[in-house]
From TrEMBL:
A Pfam family assignment: Myosin_head
Family label: Belongs to the TRAFAC class myosin-kinesin ATPase superfamily. Myosin family.
The protein, known as: Myosin IX
Domain Ras-associating, first and last residues per copy: 18-121
InterPro entries in the cross-refs: Kinesin_motor_dom_sf (IPR036961), Myo9 (IPR046987), Myosin_head_motor_dom-like (IPR001609), P-loop_NTPase (IPR027417), RA_dom (IPR000159), Ubiquitin-like_domsf (IPR029071)
UniProt-listed PANTHER family: UNCONVENTIONAL MYOSIN-IXA-LIKE, UNCONVENTIONAL MYOSIN-IXB-LIKE PROTEIN
Binding site for ATP: G248, E249, S250, G251, S252, G253, K254, T255
Organism: Mytilus galloprovincialis (Mediterranean mussel)
GO function term, MF aspect, one: microfilament motor activity
A biological process term (GO) from this entry: intracellular signal transduction
Major location (coarse): cytoplasm
Length: 572
C-alpha cells in the first residue's frame, strides 16, 4: 500500500509535458491520505481504477469504480460516479481553485477529490480507509436527520400556502425563520423558493438523490431535487414536455441551482453512461460559457450576463437522449462600457493575466489599464472577501482545458484569442477629421498602427477594415453612393463592430457546445419528451439603464404574471 500524507488536497503537479498525478483517496472525507497515480490526459477512469487497485491490493478492478466528490468543512456536499471512459486528469484540471483562506483545517476538507469505492455502494467499504471516518460520517447522518425532521412549529411552515395568515410580513418571517434553522428551501405550492446561504450544505449527495426519487411533491422537505424529480416522472407519466424556470436577483444562486438540476435530471436516467456523458459535456462547457458570459457587477463578482436554456431530451424509457443549449440576451453593451466598480467579461482578464510571453507577443496583448474598453470603470480586480478572490492566471489554464474538452483544438483556441485581442484593440482606435475645412466633418483613422494589428489578428485587409470604420454605402437603383462618417458615427460604428464580433463569437461557442452534445446522442430519431431548464436573470435597475434592461424586465414581468396566475389557479 502506497500512501502519502501531505497537507494539500487538490493541487495537481505536472510531471512532464503529458503526465499528471491523480490523487485517489480511499475515503470520501479522509483529509490527507491518498495514493498517487501517474496518468495522461487521455487516461480513462478504468485505467486509474486498475492502477489504484494494484497499488492498494484491492483485487479485481471490475468490482470498483471512481467517484468525484466535493466537500466543504469536512462534510460531503456533492458526489458523482465516473464512467469508465471518462478522463480524470481532464476533469481535475477543470476543478475551481480553492483559496488557502477557504480551507479551514480545523473543520475538515474543503475541495474536490477522487475516491475509489466498491460498485453499487453509497458508502465505501471500511477496509478501503487508512483511518476511521466515523466522525465525519456521523456529521452527515446528523445533518440528514435534522433535515428530515423539519416540523411545523413556532409558526414555521415548509409550504407558504399553508400559512394561516398570508401577508408580506408573515411570508418573510417564515422564510427567515427557516433559513436561520439551515432550511434554505421553502415551497409556495409547486414553486420552490431558495435562499442562497453562500456556503455548501451536505444535502446534494447520493443519499438525497435516491431519497427523492419518485416521491410526491411535499412528501419530503423542500429540495431542488424534488422539483427535478417531479418534472421527470410527470414527463414519463403524462408524455408531455416539462420546463423548470430559475429566476432571481443577481447573486441569488441561479447558476449553482441550474447545475444541481442538470445533475439530478441526468442522474435520474437509469441507463448509465449516456446520461453522465451529456452531463459532463454540459458542465464541462460551464467554465467556457461562464468566462465568456459572466462579469463582475456591483452586486455579484460572477454575474451571468445572459440567459441560458438547456433542454435535456429523453427516450420513452427515461434514458437521456441528448441535450441542446440556447442563449438569450447577451449583454453586448458591457463590451464597450461598464458602470463604475464593474468589469468587462471575465475572459478578457483571464487572457491578459494567463498568457505567456509568446502568446502576448503573437496576440499583441497589453495591460488592462491600456485598453479603453477595460479602464473606463477603473475596476481591474475582483474585490471582496479573500475567499472570493480569483487567480485569473489559473482560471485561464482552466478555461483552455474546458475548451479542449468541449472540442476546441489548440489552433481554434488561438483563433478565438485573436478575436478577443482584436475586440479589445478596437476600443483603442481613434479618429481625426480629414481636413481643416469647417464644413467637412468626415473622419479618417488616426491610430493606423492599431488598425494594422487588428486587421492582422482578424485576417482581413487593412483597407477593408478602414473603409468599414469610416464609410457607409447606400444603394439606390444601380448606383452605389459612398458617404463618410462624422466623428460620432465612426465611434458608434467602431463600438458596434466590437459588440458584433464578440456576440458572433459567443454564438459560435454555443454552437460548438451543441455540436459536442449532438455527438453524445444516438443516431436514431428522437422519440420521447424533454425537460427544459431556463436560467434567466431577475429584475434589473441600474443608474443608467439601456434597452437590454428593458428586455430583461419585460420578460420578468411576464414570468411574474405567469407565477401569480399559476398560484391562484392552484389554490382555487
Amino acid at each position: 500500500m502506497a500512501a502519502s500524507k501531505k497537507g494539500s488536497v487538490r493541487i495537481v503537479r505536472r510531471m512532464s509535458m503529458e503526465t499528471y498525478m491523480v490523487r485517489v483517496f480511499a475515503g470520501q472525507l479522509s483529509t490527507d491520505e491518498y495514493t498517487s497515480i501517474e496518468a495522461e490526459k487521455t487516461s480513462c477512469s478504468a485505467d486509474i481504477v486498475a492502477a489504484a487497485c494494484l497499488k492498494l491490493r484491492l483485487g479485481d478492478p471490475k468490482n470498483y469504480e471512481l467517484a468525484e466528490v466535493f466537500s466543504s468543512s469536512g462534510q460531503l456536499c456533492k458526489e458523482r460516479r465516473l464512467e469508465p471512459t471518462e478522463t480524470p486528469v481532464r476533469i481535475q484540471l477543470m476543478w475551481p481553485k480553492i483559496t488557502n483562506s477557504a480551507i479551514d483545517r480545523t473543520s475538515g476538507l474543503t475541495g474536490y477529490r477522487f475516491y475509489i469505492r466498491k460498485k453499487d455502494l453509497e458508502i465505501p467499504d471500511r477496509t478501503l480507509s487508512w483511518r476511521e471516518c466515523s466522525q465525519e460520517l456521523n456529521a452527515i447522518e446528523t445533518f440528514l436527520t435534522s433535515f428530515l425532521q423539519q416540523v411545523t412549529c413556532n409558526k414555521e411552515y415548509s409550504d407558504l400556502c399553508n400559512l394561516p395568515d398570508l401577508n408580506e410580513r408573515t411570508l418573510l418571517d417564515n422564510v427567515k425563520s427557516r433559513f436561520q434553522n439551515s432550511n434554505i428551501y421553502t415551497y409556495v405550492g409547486s414553486i420552490l423558493i431558495a435562499v442562497n446561504p453562500f456556503k455548501f450544505f451536505p444535502i446534494y449527495n447520493p443519499k438525497y438523490v435516491k431519497m427523492y426519487q419518485n416521491k410526491r411533491l411535499g412528501e419530503l422537505p423542500p429540495h431542488i431535487f424534488a422539483i427535478a424529480d417531479t418534472a421527470f416522472y410527470t414527463m414519463l407519466r403524462k408524455r408531455k414536455n416539462q420546463c423548470i424556470v430559475i429566476s432571481g436577483e443577481s447573486g441569488s444562486g441561479k447558476t449553482e441551482t441550474n447545475n444541481l438540476l442538470l445533475h439530478h435530471l441526468t442522474a435520474l436516467s437509469q441507463k448509465g453512461a449516456h446520461g453522465s456523458g451529456v452531463e459532463q459535456t454540459i458542465l464541462g462547457a460551464g467554465p467556457v460559457l461562464e468566462a465568456f458570459g459572466n462579469a463582475k457587477t456591483v452586486h455579484n463578482n460572477n454575474s451571468s450576463r445572459f440567459g441560458k436554456f438547456v433542454q435535456v431530451n429523453y427516450k420513452e424509457n427515461g434514458m437521456v437522449h441528448g441535450a441542446i443549449v440556447e442563449k438569450y440576451l447577451l449583454e453586448k453593451s458591457r463590451i464597450v462600457s461598464q458602470a463604475k466598480n464593474e468589469r468587462n467579461y471575465h475572459v478578457f482578464y483571464y487572457l491578459l493575466a494567463g498568457s505567456d510571453e509568446e502568446e502576448r507577443e503573437t496576440l499583441h496583448l497589453l495591460e488592462p489599464q491600456d485598453y479603453t474598453y477595460l479602464k473606463q470603470s477603473e475596476c481591474f480586480i475582483l474585490d471582496g472577501f479573500e475567499e472570493e478572490r480569483v487567480d485569473e492566471k489559473y482560471e485561464f489554464e482552466r478555461l483552455k482545458q474546458s475548451m479542449e474538452m468541449v472540442g476546441f483544438s489548440a489552433v481554434t483556441q488561438k483563433r478565438i484569442f485573436s478575436v478577443l485581442s482584436a475586440v479589445l484593440l478596437l476600443g483603442n482606435v481613434e479618429f481625426k477629421k480629414k481636413g481643416d475645412q469647417h464644413h467637412d466633418e468626415s473622419v479618417t483613422v488616426k491610430t493606423e498602427s492599431v488598425v494594422q494589428i487588428i486587421s492582422s489578428l482578424l485576417k482581413v485587409k487593412e483597407k477593408t477594415l478602414v473603409d468599414a470604420l469610416t464609410q457607409k454605402r447606400a444603394t439606390a437603383g444601380d448606383e452605389t453612393v459612398v458617404m463618410n462618417y462624422k466623428m460620432e458615427d465612426a465611434i458608434a460604428t467602431r463600438d458596434a463592430m466590437a459588440k458584433c464580433l464578440y456576440g458572433a463569437l459567443f454564438d459560435w461557442i454555443v454552437l460548438k457546445v451543441n455540436q459536442a452534445l449532438l455527438a453524445k446522442r444516438h443516431h436514431s430519431d428522437h422519440q420521447g419528451n424533454s425537460i427544459g431548464v431556463l436560467d434567466i436573470f431577475g429584475f434589473e435597475d441600474f443608474t443608467k439603464n439601456s434597452f437590454e434592461q428593458f428586455c430583461i424586465n419585460y420578460a420578468n414581468e411576464h414570468l411574474q404574471y405567469y407565477f401569480n396566475q399559476h398560484i391562484f389557479k392552484f389554490e382555487q
